Amino acid sequence: MKKTRLLLLLCLTVAAAAQPADSTPADQAAPQNTEITTGTFPIERVQTPTNADIYCGGFVSKELVPNANFVGGGLESPNTTKFATNDTIFLAGQGYQTGQKYQIVRELVDPNQYELFAGQHSMLKAMGQPYSELGWVRIVDTRGKMAVARVEFSCESIVPGDFAIPFAEKPAIAFHLPERFDRLRPSNGSASGRIVLAKDFDLLLGNGSKVYMNLGASQGIKVGDYLRAVRTYEADLRDPVDSLSFKASSTEDTQKYPPSIQGHMFSKTKGPSIQVGDMPRRAIGEIVVINTTPTTATGMIVFSLEDVHVGDGVELDPQ
Q1: Rounded distance, CA 166 to CA 269, Å?
Q2: CA atoms of 256 and 108, how far apart (whole Å)
Q3: Which of 2, 67, 110, 267 lies at a C-alpha separation of 20 to 30 Å from 212?
Q4: Mind listing the pLDDT tens digit for each residue in 4-60?
Q5: Nearest to 312 by CA among 186, 226, 193, 163
Q6: Is 290 exposed, middle or buried, given 0-12, 13-18 or 19+ CB atoms closer than 10 A?
Q7: In 3D, which of 300, 240, 239, 296 has the Cα closest to residue 124?
Q8: Residue 271 included in any domain
């Protein structure tokens, strides 16, 4: 009986060994489909703005901020000239009352006069004056000629001469669920504009960066709206750096009639002419609006597939 069981077990083992092995490992993923379809667009996972983002974004406005109330110094002046959270500062001007909150803002000027794109300065002048938002303070004493205030929150250093304006609560930003990001979506005809300036006068921008755009409430833009950052290949052609790639040879020596790029003919050729303006524009990121004026909007980049540039176009993205 034992011999019979042993023989049966041996037969089963030999039969299992004779089965052909599966050439595809169980944990090997199936080949990925590289065809561009709505199913292969990347998933957009946006960065939700915090209170610091909302209250520190800055703005551009045609209406100048009143400059009658301003920072005159601090508890340890003149040895300390930069103030931050929990510091005691003195505010010059009138109208202060104990317990009031004031926002501290700074009127800005760009020490670098270089234009990041052609026409930037004239476009910014038409938009208005840029301001940075530095934080807020609360008045604790008004018995002297200058009011005494405590810095409750600072976005960056506050210095003498910065303006103090009444504090205003800002609306929260609605959460944006992940979705597919269509890189090649044509224009939808919605309100559109351009990124004219960025916080800290930056040029190359990514997630979390603050931008100032030349469209606002008069075009129907409101806080919480999402704008899509887009760029055409003509913009690359006009860029002094990116255009160098268009001037480089992209052909093969074996081509009888190599093509030429619009505006850059390398040699006399009977080959086709590639019109850069015919190429589809590409979407490069998503921007949420955190502040508006009638003609401008402050936005925060919440999703980007590549560097966003000052000068890129923006278009309202209906959610």
Answers
A1: 67
A2: 57
A3: 67
A4: 444 444 454 444 444 444 444 444 444 444 555 556 777 777 778 999 999 999 999
A5: 193
A6: buried
A7: 296
A8: no
Closest to 211 (Cα-Cα) out of 99, 103, 286: 286
* Cβ–Cβ < 8 Å for 182, 283: yes
CA–CA separation, 132 vs 113, rounded Å? 18
Residue 116 lies in a domain: yes
In the numeric block, which tokens belong to residue 148? Answer: 């005494």
User: Which amino acid is residue 61, in one-letter code?
Assistant: S
Classify residue 124 by its DSSP letter.
H
Preceding omega of 78 cis (within 30 degrees of 0): yes
Rounded to an integer, what distance in angstroms lies between the CA atom of residue 215 and that of residue 139? 35
Count of domains for the chain: 1
Q: Is 251 among the domain residues?
A: no
Alpha-carbon distance of 158 to 77, in angstroms, equals: 13
In-domain check, residue 135: yes
Question: Hey, which residues does 289 pair with through a beta bridge?
Answer: 299
More confident residue, 236 or 31: 236
pTM of the model: 0.81
Q: 314 forms bridges with which residues in the sheet? A: 193, 229
Q: Please tell me what DSSP assigns to residue 278.
A: G
| Per-position DSSP letters for 178-243, written without gaps between them | -EE--TTPPP-S--EEEEEEEGGG-SEE-TT-EEEES--GGGT--TT-EEEEEE-HHHHHHSTTTH
Q: What is the 3-state secondary structure (H, E, C) of 149-164?
A: EEEEEECCCECCCCEE
Domain that holds residue 286: 43-242+276-316
**Hey, what amino acid is at 148?**
V
